Amino acid sequence: MGLGNPGDKYAHTRHNIGQDVVTDWAKAQGLALKRLKSFGDVVKFPAQPIVLAVPSGYMNTSGGPVSSLVRYFSTTPERVIVIHDDLDLPVGTIRLKRGGGHGGHNGLRDIHKALGTPDFVRIRLGVGRPPGRMDPAEYVLRTFPKAEAAEVERVRADAIDAVERFIVEGLEAAQQRFHSAG
User: Fold this and answer.
1) For residue 2, which of 18, 14, 17 has the smallest C-alpha distance?
2) Does the structure show a pLDDT above 70 at 155?
């Protein structure tokens, strides 16, 4: 699941980096995301048990669509991977973990509440802290500056690799690879 907000107004903002990763991954596989009911935009990999999804609605209300997708595809929260922005990590950093708190991230808070458990995997993508006294909510709704473009493009590609490595080799192997790289 790649978290973000809908619409052109939020395209390629810091808050939408998770959504951008899922869209990039689908394109790289030659697949197109399509609307599935009111759950969100979804594509299932042919011959593999992988579903990419961008929940419908806004980031802070991601829980309902995520739990609906979990039920629709008859899976469990433990098999869900949520890709999202993280203010507490520098731009270009990737961290993976299973479970834990929401760290003030309202999208994660809502998913935890809707699933009834925090035991889903998170792919945390650093977007950096806002400068000075800028409101974090305002900061994450801004696009990345050109000076960070190459780093953001790299981390989006690395995030796909991190998810693939997690699926094939497990969480610990993915953590060893990406936690030592950042």
Assistant:
1) 18
2) yes
* Structural contact between residues 85 and 19, judged by C-beta atoms closer than 8 angstroms: no
Binding residue per annotation — 16? Answer: no
Mean pLDDT across the chain: 94
Backbone angles phi, psi at 82, to 5 degrees: -110, 125
**Per the structure block, which two tokens stand in for 116?**
């009834």
* Domain locations in the chain as residue ranges: 8-181
pLDDT average, residue stretch 42-55: 93
Third-level CATH fold of 8-181: Rossmann fold (3.40.50)
Question: Does the pLDDT at position 181 exceed 70?
Answer: no
Structure tokens at 48: 């593999």
Q: Which residues of 124-159 are buried (b: 16+ CB within 10 A; e: fewer)?
A: bbbbbebeeeeeeeebbbeebeeebeeebeebbebb
Q: Is 60 annotated as a binding residue?
A: yes
**Residue positions annotated with a catalytic role:** 15
Q: Tokens representing 18?
A: 């998770």
Which conformational region is residue 160 in: left (phi greater than 0), alpha (psi within -120 to 50 degrees), or beta? alpha
